[in-house]
Amino acid sequence: EMKRGLRVQRLNHAIAEAVQAFILPEVNDDRLAQLEVAAVDLAGDLHNVTIHLVPGQGQEVFPPEELKEPLHRAEPWIREQLMEHVSLKKAPVVHLSYIPLVRRRA
Predict the structure, then answer these.
(1) How far apart are CA 87 and CA 69, in angstroms?
(2) Cα separation, 81 vs 102, whole angstroms
(3) Would you write out the chain's pLDDT as a tens digit for each of its 106 residues?
(4) What CA–CA distance (Å, rounded) separates 34 from 84?
C-alpha cells in the first residue's frame, strides 16, 4: 500500500511536469495555453486524473463558465499527450478543473 502511494505521488509529479512543460503550451486555445498546473490528483487505481489549473502569473483570470467548454474539449487530447510524455501502461481519463484564483505578485 505504501509503495502504491509513492507511485501515485511520483506519477502526480510527472503528470504535472508534462502538462506544464509540454502539453499546455501546445494546446490550440490561447486561454488554456496560459494556465498553470496547481495540483494533480491521480486516483489510486490510476484510472482517472484530475488536473487543477489556475491562471498563469500576470495573466487574465477568465470566468469559469467561459473555460468550461474549451477545457472539456481538451481533455481527450491531453489524455493522448500524457501517453507520449509519461510512462503509463494505460492513460487515465483526464478531468480538468479550473480554479480562477487571482494570484498577487509576491
Answers:
(1) 28
(2) 28
(3) 678 889 999 999 999 999 999 999 999 999 999 999 999 999 999 999 999 999 998 888 999 999 999 999 999 999 999 999 998 889 999 999 999 986 665 5
(4) 21
Asked if 104 contacts 55 with a C-beta cutoff of 8 angstroms, the reply is no
Question: What distance in Å separates the CA atoms of residue 82 and residue 24, rounded to the nearest whole number?
Answer: 11
C-alpha span between 89 and 48 (Å, rounded): 13
What lies within 8 Å, CB to CB, of 32 at 6+ separation is 24, 53, 67, 70, 71, 74
| Chain centroid to CA 50 | 7
- φ/ψ (deg, to 5) at 7: -65, -45
Q: What is the dihedral of CA 87, 89, 95, 98, to 10 degrees?
A: -10
pTM over 0.85: yes
Residues across the chain: 106
74: exposed, middle or buried (Cβ count in 10 Å: 0-12, 13-18, 19+):
buried
